[in-house]
Amino acid sequence: MVTDQLSEVFDLVEVRGMMSGGFAVRGPWVARTVLSEPLKFIALVSGRARLATDGIESPIELGPGDVAILNNRSWLELEGGTGDGPRREIVPVPGFPSPHLVGADSDVDDVVMGGRIDLNPAGQALLLQALPPVGHVRASAAANNLRGSLYRLFDEVTSNRLGSAFAIRQHSQLLLLEVLRAYIDQAELPPGWLRVLTDERLRPALNLMHAEPGKSWGLEDLARSAAMSRTSFAERFRTVAGVPPLTYLNRWRMLLAQRALRDGDVRVGSLASDLGYGSESAFSTAFKREVGESPLRYRHRVRDEMSVDMNAPVEAASGL
């Protein structure tokens, strides 16, 4: 199923949605911030706002329950509110839950929550390629699950109940999943892994490659599973995925290899055999071509970085 494959990819690229800030305000307001993370998301719990950022021709109108994913943008401006008087400038405060959300009332306030999407390097390459500069998910067209996730997150942020920090982390993860599900349903996806996972005609071939990545799949086998000719299958796959079928298979194998090297102590030779390579050297050459370094160097570097990250203090790079 598509959802199973999406979950599998999420696990491989270590997708995590992390809340980083927010505010509640009444009357006219504007908030500006510099963005340093590759992927950010902005959720409008209540009220209306206009979102501006680099790379889009005109501001995007956000309504209650809307979420925007910002892909590799450098700055963000949100403007909203109604009524007379000067426009109040909101200065986002790093950290979550934000003090600007204390006492928020979604019935009368404009409420904005912001977060970031954390991924490993392989995940950044996949998701950055699969999303436009700004992906706008409209609550009016989204499933109830998205609105429910957003409001449950808001409730945890403002209720200050026992265990709320843990609940906020879990709801942030579920919110991100629902945002991407809704975006897949609403948007015309560019060629890439998100789009190919949703293609009904290609799904049988994807099922084969994901279920047995170490098998020596040929174009004829994959085309037959999709009930298509070799030529039609190859053309459709390249159009939808952005790469030929066997290139996709090789990249999938490399994602599996990175997880195995990162999380386990499997020998490189055994991993090469499991993933369908005739020799350790052939696997190492393919891995270096795709990842940029040898399997052992990758394992040592990533584990060193993970050790540093576990001991480093957590800092919020932005107040939204």
Which keywords apply here?
about 20% strand, Arc Repressor Mutant, subunit A, 2 domains, 5-stranded mixed beta sheet, alpha+beta, about 325 residues, Jelly Rolls, single chain
Give an overview of the whole structure:
This protein has helices at residues 2-13, 121-130, 144-159, 164-186, 193-197, 203-211, 219-225, 230-241, 245-263, 268-274, 280-291, 295-311; strands at residues 16-25, 29-34, 39-46, 49-53, 60-62, 67-71, 75-80, 88-90, 110-118, 134-137. It has 320 residues and is α+β, with helices and mostly antiparallel strands. The chain folds into two domains: 13-189, Jelly Rolls, CATH 2.60.120.10; 199-306, Orthogonal Bundle (Arc Repressor Mutant, subunit A), CATH 1.10.10.60. Strands 1-9-3-6-10 form a five-stranded antiparallel sheet, with helices on one face. A hairpin with a 6-residue loop joins strand 4 (49-53) and strand 5. Helix 6 (203-211) packs across helix 7 (219-225) and helix 10 crosses helix 11. The longest helix is centred in the middle third of the chain and has 23 residues, at 164-186.
Main beta-sheet annotation: 5 strands, antiparallel
Estimate the strand proportion. Answer: 15-25%
Under the CATH scheme, the architecture of the largest domain is Sandwich
CATH H-level superfamily of the largest domain: Jelly Rolls
| Strand arrangement, major sheet | 1-9-3-6-10
What Rg do the Cα atoms give? 22 Å
List the domain count as a whole number: 2
- The geometry reads as elongated
Total count of strands: 10
Provide the residue-averaged pLDDT.
87
CATH topology of the largest domain: Jelly Rolls
- Give the H and E element order: HEEEEEEEEEHEHHHHHHHHHH
Number of helices: 12
CATH class of the largest domain: Mainly Beta
Protein name: AraC-like DNA-binding protein
GO molecular function: DNA-binding transcription factor activity; sequence-specific DNA binding
Domain HTH araC/xylS-type: 203-301
Keywords: DNA-binding, Transcription, Transcription regulation
